[in-house]
Specification:
Layout lengths: L2 H9 L5 E6 L5 E7 L2 H10 L5 H9 L2 E6 L3 H15 L15 E4 L7 E4 L8 E3 L5 H14 L11 H5 L7 H5 L12 H15 L4 H16 L3 H15 L15 E8 L3 E10 L2 E11 L6 H16 L5 E3 L11 E3 L4 H28 L1 H15 L8 E10 L2 E11 L2 E2 L5 E4 L8 H18 L7 E5 L2 H14 L6 E6 L4 E4 L2 E5 L6 H35 L6 H11 L2 H6 L2 H8 L1 H12 L2
Parallel strand pairs: 7-10, 10-11, 12-16, 16-17
Antiparallel strand pairs: 1-2, 1-3, 4-5, 4-6, 7-8, 8-9, 12-13, 13-14, 13-15, 17-18, 18-19
GO molecular function: DNA binding; excinuclease ABC activity
Subunit structure: Interacts with UvrB in an incision complex.
Family: Belongs to the UvrC family.
């Protein structure tokens, strides 16, 4: 396996999606779907295969592409589209001309509702596609059980009905049809039924599910358990029924979809090609910024490049904002509905591509990754220099008892645990977070100055404006204000406060800068609370023995070595204690625990 393939395998996401294997000439070898892309793709390279065809396939793989989707069902549909489009050599299934089933409401007077695998553009409505024929049949059974519809293919124009051309059939006598062919049912009544059926096919069938549940209970009450089980299966299928697919949409014809994700150095443009409502191609282009180009300029450049490379003939483009790419294209900026979902799918793939590139850089060039993170933090936090050395402070106490504080140190965005420090609060009485923070910050940087140790570029205070103001007093006293950047982070909404600014900064919840700040804060809290617990536990453990007159620390240690806990010492007999510490001290300890 090549180094490039190994790198791709390490950075593939764990989401549902479709993967494509290519040979060294760029020819597609195989298309597959997965609930977890990383696990599925890795399995090809991590185990010995029994079939010779699979062994040959794995040897030929030179590169891997993937498309991330929302659900496993979407992955199944996308796999079907791509296999039929490209006919990969190593795919056996799905290469025929069969497609997944749809439910059609025919464009005619008194519309029929039926299952089909062919879409005809005659104005009919199509719902689906469905990955399970069982689901289609259950839906049609549900519809037929609730609404009597015609199944004949007669032309039920008003003139022919008036002339008495048709006669009602057996379906009418069985109660499955209300006889529109002989004018026994009006067009208005029939259209009302069709409107209700549309809601069911869109997934709005709460009333229908309730009817099924009542049927199931009635069958169970009558000891008709087989019938109850059949109805139960229908309920389960309907509850799991997915009404919408982003991958296949008959309302959208030939369209090219573009989205962009960018940072300081690169733009990542994802392209989805839709043909007859189905996604048939996905490609992400990475463009390096040279002159600080805007997203609009990068997207226009990418659209031209991708159209030349793939020679698409689509005349409509879905884009996130207005672009200028000539008069030959219709530009659509989706705001909601099916079109917006497709644009969101494209943006999701651009984001995942960017994340994978970052992971690959982190593995192959850690220094470059660190520089990028530092540059991003400098920009996000509005600092004058990159925060390669960051220190974070947190206080811990319970109702003012055993107050302690912690200082954690990060170098180049990673914990430097050997430089972590604990502090016992010395000058503050009672639960005073502000005064405790002032003392700790002062002691920390007074010592660094005395020892001529390097100062951090950024100080992070776990707390809001109060703790930040207290810390500033210490920096003022040491003459460090303005020489070290300092911020406070409040826990509730992750608000970041700056000195002298009452309005907090809110970072993107997914930004790497916020994740590092949160990691700092969590480390400081963990380190501080661990020290606090240990101190409290030690005090609680020894306090009951320490109050006994004539019992010193050495005696307490000997007793704990033997009995392991204060409780066992209190339950021990006089003879057992005497064997460890002698008669005189044993009597004092025994009397302390057994006095009335």
């Amino acid at each position: 396996m090549t180094e490039e393939l190994q790198l791709q395998l390490k950075t593939i996401p764990t989401n549902p999606g479709v993967y494509q294997y290519y040979d060294k000439d760029g020819k597609i070898l195989y298309v597959g779907k997965a609930k977890n892309l990383k696990k599925r793709v890795s399995s090809y390279f991590n185990k010995n295969h029994d079939y010779g065809k699979t062994k040959v396939l794995v040897k030929k793989i030179a590169s891997i592409k993937h498309i991330v989707v929302e659900t496993e069902t979407d992955a199944l549909l996308l796999e079907n589209n791509l296999i039929k489009k490209y006919q990969p050599r190593y795919n056996v299934l799905l290469k025929d001309d069969k497609s997944y089933p749809w439910i059609c409401i025919k464009n005619e007077r008194f519309p029929r509702v039926f299952q089909t695998r062919r879409m005809i553009k005659d104005g009919s409505e199509y719902f689906g596609p469905y990955t399970s024929v069982k689901t289609v049949r259950t839906l049609l059974d549900l519809i037929k059980g609730l609404y009597p519809l015609r199944t004949c293919n007669y032309d039920l124009s008003q003139e022919k009905i008036n002339t008495g051309k048709y006669k009602v059939c057996l379906e009418y006598h069985l109660g499955n049809c209300l006889g529109p062919c002989e004018n026994y049912q009006t067009i208005q009544s029939y259209e009302t039924q069709i409107a209700a059926i549309r809601e069911i096919l869109k997934g709005n069938f709460k009333d229908s599910l309730q009817q099924f549940r009542e049927q199931m209970k009635a069958h169970a009450a009558a000891m008709e358990f087989e019938d109850a089980q059949k109805v139960k299966e229908k309920v389960e299928i309907l509850e799991n029924y997915q009404a919408k697919s982003t991958i296949v949409n008959p309302k959208i014809s030939n369209v090219d979809v573009f989205s962009i994700m960018s940072d300081e150095s690169f733009g990542y443009i994802n392209f989805l090609q839709l043909s007859l409502g189905s996604i048939v191609r996905s490609h992400t282009l990475e463009i390096k910024k040279k002159l600080d180009e805007t997203d609009k300029e990068l997207l226009e450049l990418a659209i031209t490049e991708i159209h030349q490379r793939f020679k698409t003939n689509s005349k409509e483009l879905y884009v996130p904002f207005e672009v200028e790419v000539g008069e030959n294209f219709k530009i659509t900026i989706p705001k909601l509905g099916d079109k917006k979902r497709i644009l969101d799918l494209s943006l999701r793939n651009a984001k995942y591509f960017r994340m994978e590139r970052f992971k690959q850089i982190k593995l192959t060039d850690p220094d470059k990754h660190v520089k990028r993170i530092m540059a991003q933090m400098k920009k996000d936090l509005r600092l004058s220099e990159e925060p390669q050395h960051i220190e974070c402070f947190d206080n811990s106490n319970i109702q003012g008892t055993h107050p302690v504080a912690a200082c954690v140190v990060f170098k180049n965005g990673k914990p430097s645990k050997k430089e972590y420090r604990h502090f016992n609060i010395k000058t503050v009485v009672g639960p005073d977070d502000f005064a405790s923070m002032e003392e700790v910050v002062y002691r920390r940087y007074k010592r660094l100055l005395e020892e001529k140790q390097p100062l951090p570029q950024l100080i992070v205070i776990d707390g809001g404006k109060g703790q930040l103001s207290s810390s500033l007093k210490s920096l003022d006293a040491l003459g460090l204000r303005g020489k070290i950047a300092i911020i406070g982070i409040a826990k509730r909404l992750e608000e970041i406060y700056y000195p002298g600014d009452s309005i907090p900064l809110y970072l993107d919840k997914k930004s790497e800068t916020l994740k590092i700040i949160q990691h700092l804060r969590n480390e400081a809290h963990r380190f501080g609370i661990t020290f606090h617990r240990n101190k409290r536990s030690k005090t609680a453990l020894n306090s009951e023995l320490e109050i006994i007159a004539g019992i010193g620390e050495k005696t307490i240690v000997e007793l704990l070595k033997k009995f392991k806990s204060v409780k066992r010492i209190s339950e021990a007999s006089l003879e057992e204690v005497s064997a460890v510490v002698g008669n005189s001290r044993a009597k004092k300890i025994y009397d302390n625990f057994h006095k009335k």
